[in-house]
Amino acid sequence: MAGTSILARCAFLLSLSFLALKPAHADPGTEAASFLDIPVGGRAAALGASYSALATDAYAPIWNPAGLGFLDSTQVAGMHLSYLETISYEFASFVQPVSQNGAVGVAVQYLSPGDIPSTDLGGSSIGTFSGHYGAYSLAYGQKLGEQVSIGASGKMLEAKIGQTSGTAFAGDLGSLYAPFSNLRLGAVISNIGSKLAFFDQKDALPSNARLGFLYQPLKQLSVTAEGVYRFTGLASFHTGFEWMPAPLVSLRAGYRTDTTKGLSALAGFTTGVGLHVWGQEFDYAWVPLGDLGNTQYFSLILRFGSPRGHSNNLQGLERSAKPETSAFTPHLAPLEGSL
After folding, report:
1. Rounded CA separation 303/211 (Å)
2. pTM attached to this predicted model
């Protein structure tokens, strides 16, 4: 039975080792819960995972809790990711303004590799087993003045296979700064906390620091870029652009360098589309991973109530439907010279 447990453990961890497609030159086994590196949200995935300066919506608890300080409405988000083989990844969040300058959010991330074949020491099949990773977050963001916000989140992580489970606790710290009407900067430190104890080993979480920016040279065009430094010593660059040829549609594309090591250059490419109706948003992203296959994101953001007031240079960047405009107002309002 002990041998069976070892084989099951190896199969389970092997199936999850590809989840975030960590760079091939990283030391295997040095990080746990690498599913946290998988982008959350179709828009973020399509933009090459460069979203830290954009996260003023229901994805803020995961991407940058400081974005909650500029949240414009009550929102609910959901995502389904069809990943490699039988792996699926689900996400849900709820964010709520609690004052003119602050908001709270909760989020759930749940990843399942599906049923995994199990064998005994002789290699004979003894059925299947299942497991999962989960992360449960609580976040708060606060606006300081008109151009700056800060935020923090706490999360509990769990890993389970059969009757064996492990837990860890971590937190994120973030900030947003908008010095000009068409520019926003974001800085985040993620997954700082305890090691994940699973079976007889403890592994560090995928901690990292991110610095991103959003620039809008034209009313219909947004450009994002983000540098990521992992605490294991690895660095990567993410970038993307979003173009709105019509009020109802956003076309997106991006590129990230951390998924190309050991794979083809195509593995860094991302693309997708967003549809915007009555202030609601549906996003789709296609992310090829070279010889490993393709992944597809489906996500949705629902907004409730009238947008609360925003002033100065962040207003044009907020994703809301103005009550005085058409019901088909795009989610990304044009940046104006004076806000």
Report:
1. 28
2. 0.82
